[in-house]
């Protein structure tokens, strides 16, 4: 599957907007990707019009034009153009402190931005790569919660992409007490008791 993005943004000087960090440096794509990997997680994957609109709204002020053009080939990122441009990095942080789901949510809000929402396959793959590289735990809390008879992202991202197990345990369909979502190192979502203590991943 090939995903292409060519997006024009209005951005202000060095700032963080949720999971995205605006970088004012002008690099060619390979250097921009390396910068993001060295200092954050990777170049930002913008996977929806809604996300694009959030950034446009958040970055009012000094106007800078730039674009990103990424496509995914397996798990490798490829660039669809060249030149020197400003860029956004995505910043995922694995917290090596075991907390309940609610404690993890509050710690993310207080020290970073939020528990991650994995609203696309791209974001999901980046989070899996991050927890595999950190090698700290089998499971991490994510911002997934079962409320009012449905699963949702607590930051209000749409729940279009899902990574529940295809076979076997289907407790997530109607959980009685396992109402908080966790991500495994293998990339599956699992529902857990919200009072369990797990490491977690923030923006």
TrEMBL record:
Coiled coil, from the record: none
Where would one find the signal peptide in this protein? Answer: 1-15
Stated name of the protein: C-type lectin domain-containing protein
Q: Which organism is it from?
A: Sparus aurata (Gilthead sea bream)
Q: Which InterPro entries match?
A: C-type_lectin-like, C-type_lectin-like/link_sf, C-type_lectin_CS, CTDL_fold
Residues in domain C-type lectin? 17-87, 85-203
Concerning PROSITE patterns, the annotation shows:
C_TYPE_LECTIN_1 (PS00615), C_TYPE_LECTIN_2 (PS50041)
Could you tell me which SUPFAM superfamilies the record lists for this protein?
C-type lectin-like
Q: Which UniProt keywords apply?
A: Disulfide bond, Signal
- Transmembrane feature ranges: none
